[in-house]
Amino acid sequence: MAKEKEKDVLLHVENLKMYFPITKGIIFQKHVGDVKAADDLTFDIYRGETLGLVGESGCGKSTTGRAILQLYTPTAGKVIFRDADGDRDLAQTSGETLRRLRRQIQMIFQDPYASLNPRMTVGSIVSEPLEVHNIDNSAKRLKRVRELLNIVGLNPYFINRYPHEFSGGQRQRIGIARALALNPDFIVCDEPISALDVSIQAQVINLLEDLQDKFGLTYLFIAHDLSVVRHISDRIAVMYLGKIVELTESDELYANPLHPYTEALLSAVPIPDPAIEKKRQRIILEGDVPSPANPPQGCNFSTRCPKFIEGKCDTKDPAFQEVQPGHWVACYLYEGVHK
Amino acid sequence: MFKFIVRRILGFIPVILSVAAITFFASKAIPGGPFDFAGDRSLPEEVVKNLEAKYHLDWPGWKQFTSYMIGDELTIFRTKHEIDDVNVFIEGDKAIVNGNVMLLDNKTLCKESGYIVYGGFTIFDLDTEACGTSQGVIRGDLGPSFRYRARTVNDIINETLPLSAQLGLWSILVGLIIGIPAGIVAALHQNTIWDYLATFVAVMGVSIPSMVLGPVLIVIFANNLGWFPVAQWGAKPPYFENMFLTPGFDWINYFSHAILPVLTLGTGISAVFARLTRASMLQIIREDFIRTARAKGLHEQVVIWRHALRNSLIPVVTILGPLAASLVTGTLIVEQIFGLNGLGKHFVQSISNRDYALVLGTTLLFAVLLVISNLFVDIMYAWLDPRIRLE
Amino acid sequence: MASEGTTAKGAITRKPRSLLWDSVNRLQKNYLAVGSLVFLALLVIVALAAPFISSGDYANQSLKHNYVVRSWMLGFMPETASPPTIVTEDGSRIKPEGDIVGYANVVTGSDYPLGGDDLGRDLWTRTVYGARISLIIALVASTVSLVVGTIYGLFSGYLGGMTDNIMMRFVDFLYGFPFLIVVILSQVYFKALSNRTSGEGFGQMIIDLNNAMGGVLFMFIAIGLVNWLGLARITRGQVLALRETEYVHAAKAVGAKTGRIVFRHILPNIIGTLIIVETLAIPGYIFTEAFLSFIGLGVNAPTPSWGIMIADAAATIRSYPHILLPPSIALTLTALTLQFILSKNGIEQPTYSPIIKPVPFQQIA
Ligand SMILES: Nc1ncnc2c1ncn2[C@@H]1O[C@H](COP(=O)(O)OP(=O)(O)OP(=O)(O)O)[C@@H](O)[C@H]1O
Ligand SMILES: [Mg+2]
Predict the structure, then answer these.
(1) Least confident piece of the model among A75-84, B325-334, C242-251, C283-292
(2) Domain layout of chain B by residue ranges
């Protein structure tokens, strides 16, 4: 599935942290802690690729996506976006500059039922990006909206309907049309298919792939299980409790998972070859995911890790290192292993 | 629990202080003063000045306020005997008091030669005796009234509060006795004739304001049927201690006077309570824990009385706090319609009259009652809903 | 644009169903509510057409007509009423002329269809004009409180953080303040102001306008002043909830500015709730106006308000109960019909909600 990609960085994320403060008190709000939803993330996204971001529910995937888009103001870190105008740190821009940059970075949301304003017609939802950036006059915008609806496979006749008159899959297409309206370079797809019926999932995935080919899009594709992303991603990042634990080419990840958590995840993915499938052994993780408000000492995975090393894993965070060319992992098992 | 109550009471202090301060300065901000009304309008400037000085109204506002709160050397007078029959005319700068002419522009004369009563109000009164100085709110002294000049605010409250409180408490009692059972019956027999009836009557109840219901009751039961007397309730205030401690207290007479005003007020309250109880009861009996209780095979009566009722009373208890505070301190309309000498009118008149001490006194009384009844409500919550813990 | 969809089937051409239509449909099934709506519509018509369906002069005093009744009212006039006398211009009292049955002075003819009050003013005219006051109060006070409360809540909720905190503590503080005292204070203040006749500038303009309107303007302000609080809280709560919804994030992601997000995305989704909440307060406004007028802090005489009329009538209730009837029936029916509409149109009233101040005790006071 891997396409030829020139290693041209589009987005560089460095030490990105997104903490949600926990406060107490009514008048004088005391800061009593943080939910560390995204904790010190560093990765690149290459132009034209699809980077899959996988992890359990609540591990901070959406938060990461939103922090990249500056829908949340990151607590710390850089989000450097590179285009013809050079490098810009999104985390440092705001106001009008940021608003302009938004034209190039879009998002498809997790929940097709919640992401469309129920009081707006499909037409006004899809044309909103054009409107807020003052693109074209209203007649041209209307034309463009019809075109977009066609592209995502919706009948433009529905333009005056309200979202509640559509099915989940159709709604997700509306969301995609909205994301495409501004001809962006980069789209964060936040679990665009998890809320959909299995039968429609494939359609939406295919649509996204077609669009990528057609418009040269770059995706950050978020999903909560590995079976979905394998098909669409060039590279995959595995996330656990606010941290990326492993990042590599998707074939490499399936063939040679390094992090114990990735292994556990992969062991749960059915393999379409009966012979191998028979031998597949599920690694059942014990215990619950700790709360992101109170992560364990040391490696976040240490409380559930089958390969836990006492005195090491529970003391300090393992560094996120490139242990083989293009294969990054954060685990003490690979300490000192260098490319 | 004890700590909770103490903490809450300490928390009241700034609230009450700021309510007092804001009311005081807001009423001072209204143009006009206590001495330019009805009886006093024609007073010469000197006399007004003199009066203002007497009541320390010439002081800066903040000083008046602090002295009101913590007391000052302001003298409080008390009347020795009735003075209203004194014959007074004011003609230009002269006042004729029982045939004696006094010059009003002469300050000393005014101060020394006697009292002037005009339009029923004492301006200066020789027949009063100084009974002490204003002790300040912190010592429970609400100061002298600028309008009813022979009386203190404490006197006025002592005179009028018992009647207002009786009216309020009886009405709440009526509300509880009628409203809650009606609400329960309506909820348990939802969509039956009982429910419709109760709901309909309750809607009527909240829609008929007391200013309509009161006169209607008077016309029907006093005028036409002649069952109950109107007015005169509490002409001689039957204080609580009197009522319950006096052997052979004439309860029949008491209630024949009380029943119409109490019904006037109680109807609306019953209606509100009935609606609240019905709504929350309906909600509660659909909830899981009630279904569980039923599933456990508990007797229906037990389910309703032990489990559902307690919880469904929470909304009633919630409005009971502010309701009690505002009813106990007087319901102007009912008092006016039935000619009751209650506290209600002073809330309005004191502001209209710029009787600053009385404004503060009534507001403070209300605020204190409000916070106390809200505290009471919170404690009731904890009792009704075990999930709520007082911290 | 719809014309282009010729290929679409019938099912597609169906128009989007509107919420209004739905609620009209539901309403039709409820006769009580329909009857109430009809009554309110009539009331509005009567109020609008007041000059045409009444003598038009609500302030006209006629000594010959004080306490007059129609003959059909005699049944419930008390026997004990003292015989009315007519006081002529020179102050002498003479026995009234005309149809006298029992003790009350009866009028014939088309004037005074509901009798006259203590000053001989036409009760029908005054009641009809009183409807204007009540309806205007209901309309303006609710609009004022809706607008102020919504804007305040929108700002507080969307700005968030410290601003929100300060704005909401201010609301809490006002909330703790006795409602009645605030209204009375501000009404006394306004009344004192409106005695000022000479002055200049904007302030005087407002005062003159208020006097020309019979004191209604200041009552809007006084009632509106205390009633936006609940709405501000509800609005803020809703904004906080919607601010984190995906469609708001989506709007932000496409580069919508704050104003657009607040007014295109958040407001349309909460305005329905807000209007319902505000509508529930309307009987309270009507009662508050009647209450203020009753205690003499409402409209200025001789502007007729049901509250003032009831207060006047209550003073002579034992002798002349007929004066009480028109304003009482009007006030009660208006409140009643509003209640029927509000409680039957799917809006169950009044469950306990910690953010909505319980309206009832305003109504009782
Ligand atoms: N606005 C917020 N305020 C506080 N905490 C938040 C906020 N948004 C998310 N969180 C917390 O951050 C953590 C990560 O949430 P996030 O939505 O990013 O998870 P996710 O990986 O997208 O999960 P899912 O697969 O369910 O969408 C969760 O513990 C969540 O409770
Ligand atoms: Mg998510």
Answers:
(1) B325-334
(2) 75-133, 154-384
CB contact under 8 A, C314 and B269: no
DSSP output for B54-103: HTTTTS-HHHHHHHHHH--S-EEEEESS--TT--EEEETTEEEETTEEEE
Average pLDDT, integer, range A6-17: 87
**C interface mutation test: which of B223, B232, B340 has the most C CBs within 10 A?**
B223
Fold of B154-384: MetI-like fold (1.10.3720)
Contacts of C2 in chain A (CB under 8 A): 160
Residue type for C203, please? G
CA distances from residue A201 to A170, A171, A198 in whole angstroms, order as listed: 11, 13, 5
A110 CA distance to ligand 2 middle (Å): 6
More confident: C71 or B88: C71
Q: Could you report the per-residue pLDDT of C13-42, keeping only the tens digit for each?
A: 445 555 555 555 555 556 777 788 888 899
For residue B216, the CA-to-ligand 1 centroid distance in Å is 62
Mean pLDDT of C290-312: 84
Mean pLDDT of chain A: 87
Nearest to A235 by CA among A252, A258, A212, A256: A252
What's the gap in Å between the CA of A175 and the closest CA on chain C?
A: 9
Q: Is residue B162 very low, low, confident or very high in pLDDT (cuts 50, 70, 90)? A: confident
Contact C254 A66 (CB under 8 A): no
Distances (CA, A) of A314 to A195, A206, A285, A295, B306: 36, 43, 17, 11, 52
d(CA A51, CA A232): 9
- Tell me the whole-structure pTM to 2 decimals: 0.76
User: What pairs with residue B76 in β-bridges?
Assistant: B132
Q: What is the pLDDT of residue B234?
A: 60
* Helical ranges in chain C per DSSP H: 10-13, 19-28, 31-48, 50-53, 123-159, 161-176, 179-194, 201-212, 216-243, 246-253, 258-260, 267-280, 282-294, 306-315, 325-344, 360-364
Q: Where are the beta strands (DSSP E) in A25-142?
A: 30-46, 50-55, 76-83, 86-89, 105-108
Residue type, C198: S
Whole-number pLDDT of residue C241: 84
Ligand 1 atom index nearest CA of A110:
27
* Out of A11-15, A160-164, A238-242, B32-36, least confident range: B32-36
- Cβ < 6 Å from ligand 1: which residues? A 20, 35, 37, 55, 57-63, 110, 224, 292; C 244
Q: How many angstroms separate the CA atoms of A96 and A231, rounded?
A: 38
Sort out which chain C residues have CB atoms less than 8 A from A29's CB and list them: 165
Q: What is the mean pLDDT of residues A139-166?
A: 90
Residue B19 forms contact with C (CB below 8 Å): yes
Query: In the structure encoding, which two tokens stand for residue A43, read together?
Result: 């990765």
Look at residue A338 in the predicted model and tell me its pLDDT. Answer: 56
